[in-house]
Design brief:
about 300 residues, mainly alpha, MetI-like fold, 11 helices, about 70% helix, globular, MetI-like_sf
Amino acid sequence: MTMISERSAPAGAELAGGAAFAPAPASAARRGVPSPAPGRAPGEGRPRRDLRRAFLRALSVAACVGLWQWASMTRADLGVVTFLNVPAPTDVLAAARELFASQKLWQHLGNSVFRVLAGFAAAGATGVVLGLLIGRSRLAEDTLLPPLEILRPIPGVAWLPLAILMFPSAELSMIFITYMGALFPILIATIHGVGALDPRLIASSRSLGARPLRLFLEVVLPGALPSIVTGMSIGMGTSWFCLVTAEMIGGQYGIGYFTWESYNLQRYPDIVLGMLLIGLLGMLSSALVLRVGAWLTPWQEPQEKGR
């Protein structure tokens, strides 16, 4: 009687009775992922699932807009919240047509986008470099982290009066506000990403002869990159928040200035339009950061959520 053991049998070898021995991939077994069902290709139902999720998301937004339209048309008074003076979505849509036909919108958008990109780029470079240094060096942690921790709880908007005194122009002061808003989320995420690296990975790289620079560029930085991308996504949102507030106080152009000017002139549909533009720009810019991060970390597999 011929005995075939699992250790000696090759993948796909036929056992008694014609059954094929095809063990599940080791990576799937380690992750606890069940093998795909026979006759079904992996990801076969993904397009239908993605379409269903997109439909549910669109339906959620449409339901919110419908509730908003109903509350505005009926002048709903909920006691704490009243919609007596809140413009309806149809009024905001009419205001959007008028604004998109003028040159004002593009001037406001151009100024706001430039300020955010300039402040965010400077904050990204500073936060990543400082975070990597603090995460890898005890001396840098003891000398740089304490003053940064004192400054971290200060809201970006609170820097505005000092920024006006520090910088010769309002433009630079608003860029500085966006810089301060994005700096600390990126910094803290980078420090945590470096701290979460497996020490055995560092030790193995050193034992294989990796020099400090190669260890830093090929092990530490790629290992911390997913956390850095998350911090940058959060920092992008906070930079928009800080910029809009700065534009409301000290700007002459920008989406924040447009929203505040609309309030002073009692153009209520334009107020809501400015708020929606701010939310849309923040959402798109954060999604762009995440997309670039996914492209830079192809080894990071997205986690499937439970059905």
